[in-house]
Amino acid sequence: MTRSAALRPTLLVALLGTALLAICLLSLSLGARSIPPIEVARTLLGHPPDQDVHDIVWSARVPRTALGLTAGAALGLSGALMQALTRNPLADPGILGVSAGASFAIVLAIELFGLGSLLGYIWFAFAGAMAASLVVYLLGRTGRSGLTPVKLALAGVAVTALLSSLTSAVVLTDPDALDRYRFWSAGSLGTATGSTVLHFLPFLALGALLALSCAPALNSLALGDDVAASLGRRLGLVRFQGVVAIVLLAGGAVAVIGPVVFLGLVVPHAARIVAQQAGLGPDHRWLLPISAVLAPCLLLLADIVGRLVERPIEVQAGIIVAFIGGPFFIALVRRRRLAEI
């Protein structure tokens, strides 16, 4: 390897890290009340210009930014992992029933127990995501051929359709449940608190560990099941570990910020382009971390735009991501044929 080629990954890490830090600073600075970056820096160092700035930065924007970082990283990782496991470039975490399971569980929690706070129903959302994904996994492994990418995707689509119908049936008969569910389903970082982030961190840490440890096996799976098996990969164990990681990452993220569409779908494609430009190729040991950095960049940018576009009224980040993600994904599809991804 030449010296210039060896420097490429280092330069990539530096650029991604710089971009993420700059976006975090913007997230702390911009909103209904804009705060100059120098005042934000002074506040973070313990020397705020006044109490109002201290309260805005530490009580509202630091938790919000931290939640955007963690939830975005989780959705980016789970999206890249989902596409690798199913070998389907159109796959995202929702294909395993994660979003549909969380949505149905939250509606039931609101309907049956009257829960309205995020910390009140986060555990219901996570349990629903786990249950739905388990059903998808069990359905996908039925039959003589065992668990295959096609069967897993088909099982996910079927379970998602069923749970979405049940969710609609509940919310349409209860206006109160509809109001609470509608705000959550738009996808927002606006309800973030320090305790929200702390509740989510264990799921992110364990899910990220499982996902990143799958990376070498995912490189083998990309060559086909037969080749991967001949290389000594235990396909069932790898897919089970991947499904658990997706449930932990996407289930936790969906529970705390709602189902943000396009993030887990678009970001892995962008990560492949970045890795290709850096000369890293389709190596999941790089694709997964790159996805974990690009996703929070996009989510935080969407959140910033949502704060500014109609301030002081905020537009949920999930809506902005959909506006950004749709055209961006169309551009990706036009640039590269899906069969070649």
TrEMBL record:
Highest taxon of source: Bacteria
InterPro entries reported for this sequence: ABC_BtuC-like (IPR037294), ABC_transptr_permease_BtuC (IPR000522)
Cell location: Cell membrane
A Pfam family this chain is assigned to: FecCD
UniProt KW keywords: Cell membrane, Membrane, Transmembrane, Transmembrane helix, Transport
UniProt membrane topology term: Multi-pass membrane protein
Coiled coil: none
Membrane-crossing segments per the record: 65-82, 94-115, 121-140, 152-172, 200-222, 243-266, 286-306, 313-333
CDD domains tied to this protein: TM_ABC_iron-siderophores_like
SUPFAM superfamilies named in the record: ABC transporter involved in vitamin B12 uptake, BtuC (SSF81345)
Stated family: Belongs to the binding-protein-dependent transport system permease family. FecCD subfamily.
Protein name (record): FecCD family ABC transporter permease
Source organism: Streptacidiphilus cavernicola
